[in-house]
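seq:
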Amino acid sequence: MSSTQEARHKRARIAVRVTAHQDALIRDAATAAGQSLTDFVTSAAVARAEDTLADRRVFRLDDEAWAQFTEILDRPAQRIAELTRLLNETSPWDDELRAP
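struct:
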């Protein structure tokens, strides 16, 4: 389902209680961003949720995404010259540790 189709089929609701100050702040920010209150709050909450879950060990992938992911993992490793050079450079803190 495309995001346009998904947007037309929104059925879930989230209700939150906020202070008057928080309400005014969020509404002002939505207006400044040129978004509806719903779009602003949803995009902010989704971005925060994605950031929060980004470093987790559990990945939720559909079958197609899982197939792509495992295909990438199964590829033979490739040496990247720039990365090899970078990893062989002396780091600034190594020099500090060697100083008498």
